[in-house]
Amino acid sequence: MTQNEEVKKLVQSQFAKNAEKYVMSESHARGDDLSQLVNWLHPDPNWIILDIATGGGHVAKALSPHVAHVFATDLTQQMLQAAKKHLHEYQNIWYIIADAESLPFLNETFDAVTCRIAAHHFPNPENFIREVNRILRPGGKFVLIDNVSPEDQQLDQFMNTLEKLRDESHVRCHTIPEWKGWLHHWGFEERKSRIRKKTYDFPTWVKRTARSEQQIREVQGYIQSADRTIHEYFSVTINHDQIISLQVDEWMALFEKKSSNNDTV
């Protein structure tokens, strides 16, 4: 088994065990980015949209009333089953097991593609962007939403180490320049973007993926031992030696596929 295959097996294992938690997660189910995503896309009633790594299906749910069809893909069957269970009344959502880096769709099939709070689990993000380019129609829109790491190396290392300690299926939160480099290479032009501070309720956040109390203590210890600069950047709140909350950067960006692109393969 290759390293990439091992990573994807971890992802499947992690999300299979915690599928219901992600469906019900406040940080995934709520947030103004869902309504903002619809506003940015200006979806047409005839559109066919692909939501990659749909998780709890929150993006698919937000877009379903505005388009003809939403194809919701995920690597984990149990995750799709949980999403479908909670979205059973939405008749135009179709659920497909699929790898974000090797999508089972023909070229230029979709009017728009979305991927929200998932890409940090992909071992080959450039392959993912290449696939989005391939299955999008010329002029099609792509909205990417994900946690991003700061460009400062110390802060980047802290964020990604913390995420890996909490969730073994985590691969990497990339920087915005990294994402823009891949997107521009594969023929995307940026139309809109924003970055915001997203607050995590620490007890809820750490328990969503932790396998044991020992793992939770390791995550707590790593945060508490970090220096002041890190605590300030991530707005770590500690009360009586208990971590209450912290913040991470979340980037939301709208891109458009160039009408003529010689890089498509």
TrEMBL record:
UniProt xrefs under Gene3D superfamilies: Vaccinia Virus protein VP39
MF terms in GO: S-adenosylmethionine-dependent methyltransferase activity
Limits of the Methyltransferase type domain: 50-144
Keyword set, alphabetical order: Methyltransferase, Transferase
GO biological process, one term: methylation
UniProt keyword NAD present: no
Pfam families, per database record: Methyltransf_11 (PF08241)
Family (UniProt): Belongs to the methyltransferase superfamily.
Protein name: Methyltransferase
